[in-house]
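Give me structure tokens for this 183-residue protein.
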Amino acid sequence: MCDRPGFTVWFTGLSGAGKTAIAEPLAKALQARGLRVERLDGDTVRQELTSDLGFTKEDRDENIGRVTFVAKLLSRNGVAVICSFISPYRERRAKTRRDIEHEGSPFVEVYVHCPLEVCAARDVKGLYERAFAGEIDNFTGVSDPYESPEKPDVVCRTAEETVAESVARVLAYLEEKGYVPAQ
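Here you go.
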């Protein structure tokens, strides 16, 4: 039996929007408050759990489905789960929310909003440049859609605020809801 219920914080946004940049210090802040925390990040999961999948809509949905399963197991066992995934489709994100909440665990959707041109300018891997040149198929925001959340729980505007401000925004929401102890 866990002494504190788990929950899932789901960061969604374009590649380069700042999902991981916010998730890492958020995880550290939650650990500092005594919570058990696990991070599930798009790049790591693609290497370790879903390397057999591509980037079609069906494969992206399967990728998020597998992550949802892991997040559901962890959160129902008292872990604060921090997920950082582009997760471009509203319907799949809504199913993730339903699946996790069905287990009795809170789900917090954080929209990491950042204009496409800012994400492209931040891109150290050159993926946007290749996508704009037509060298990468199914690239979210360029040749594949990104469906912005209609009613996210939290919005972080990373072109306008610092990482610390975004982390503080998420922490404030978690405190307000009683998911984490206030400081």
